[in-house]
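Good morning,

Both structures are done.
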Amino acid sequence: MAGVLGGVALALGMLTALATAAADGGLSITGPESAKVELDDHGKRDHLHGPLPLVISNSGPASVTPVIAAYLDATGGENDQVCTRTGAVMALQTGQAKALGVNEARAVVIDLVVPEECVGREGTLVLSASNTPPATTRFTLTRGAEREPEYTAALMAAAALALIVCFLMIVPANFFGKPQKGWEEKPLDIDSPWSVKDSWLTNITALGALLGTVLSTTGFLADWLPGVSLSQFLGMNLLYGGVILFAPIVYSASCYWGWPEQEDEKGNVSRRFKPVAHGWGLVVAAYATLFGVFGQLATIVVLIVSAAADQGTKWTLYVLVAVAAAFVGLYSLRFVRGVLAPRPEDGITPSAGQRSAVL
């Protein structure tokens, strides 16, 4: 009897040891402690893709076909409902999923597909199989080079918008003044030549070019635009600043120095040596100025599109840029049409004050 009991005890001990050994084995994941997943745009505006390379292994007593899932942490932010819901993150194994044999290890690449609003969050990748304890690993979502900013599109948009505003400047209609007949060739009745120091619009745009250069060369924009090369932005920024500084040269090229007649408030006619401008020079200089201003604003827009910011922030910046462009266009339109308009013929003697033609 004692021998039978001893045999049963030995058998139970062996079964317990096998169960313990099976529990100690199972799935495991080898990789960085908290891997960084760089997300890129693959043609989908609302979702981003990122690869997560790992090594998975099976030390259990039987072959298993692992199931992969990913979950993002809650942060208490406004996008928690989007990022933490079931199925918010898709974890797709590249290639066909295969059974993982006993004591087998395999290198895999997991393609994480996440909503754009979830960039910057941390999460957990879970590897599970039937009758096997799951394995987990942590990861952090970062934005990679989503796409290069469309600088060419910004340039074309700026050129077209400046052309539209300049066309409205010379339309022979009664709004914001009406250009006089032959405005392109007739001398303008103005006193001050166009210079960089007198043009606030030129100065502001040149300052914007300098500020953009400083921000791009000091690395300030690198965190806001991860993975995006800023060398082309620097070049475009300097280009628009150079076009702005070219505007006074265009205006001066349309002028000639002479002794035009001037009539003061008392009706006395005199001559003074000064530059005499023409309407075509003013319009062309205005186009150069607007092209530079709109070019800088359009470049800001394409940078916002590629920026690592939430949609609320982006739309706020879009509105601010649109308002700035509208005010610049409206001011330029009213200014140039007023300069091209003839003096009023109501019998009132004009004041002898200066009439400027500087944007």
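Second structure follows.
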Amino acid sequence: MEPTTGLILRRITQTELSVSAHKLATIILDGIAWKEGYNGLSRGTAAFTLSTLAEKMGVSRQYLTVLLTELEASQLQLTRQKPNGKYAPWLFRFTAFDEEGEIEDVASGRDDTSLSSKDYNKTVFSGHININAVSDVFQTCWADLIKAAKTVLPCWNVDTQVIWDRFLAFNRARGNEKVPAGFLLGFMRRWRTAPGATPRPKEVPKPQAMLDPRERELRDQIKAAPSTNRQFHASDLCSKIGMAAYEARVLEVIRQFGCQRFTAMLAVHGRAVLAGEIAR
């Protein structure tokens, strides 16, 4: 059975872990490549430097190591390796899902719309780049990929050849002769704009329309509980009041505001935070 975002996320919430380890697991899950070659990674693998993870978690490197050890010893069986050299990021993988015959009761059903089954808006950089092979980017297969990817990156207004030249020079200075294609996308994401360069034009904000009082009430409830923590909120609230009572609250919000189930769940979490039943 192919693992999906929904399957792994459910297993994370079901695994006995500290709150911080749960958060770290979801951060790693968010970075997993679900298409072979996406960002130069194999399917089911995420790449992070330890400093990036520590920054995202807001913890020290020492405590981050403790959390990684906890995930490695858990049922998730997190593994990490660094096959691409000293300055390359660590590669992370939940190996518990590599085995065939995954437990059926946590498998994603046919209605699962997790990111693992979607290829939308993904620019795939697969394979490797020979640094000393070709200096003219338009004689390679990378020109179109660079042009497609840079539209949403800091180098959006930089000439494709200039990006390629800078990438080659960067790797030659470090003695790299062949690198994963994902390094090119990472290089573009970390592009530093020179002083005085033309900034990306900003859209003029549109005046906000007056909200209906009921819609304002619903939004205020949702804001009380950050949506990024929704899985933990749901788990904590279900543990406190039971699944039946949780479902009843969700249905009550749907009837009251006529909203979608997902929105209703966020509102239920916000109400519970405001009432002091669960932590924010």
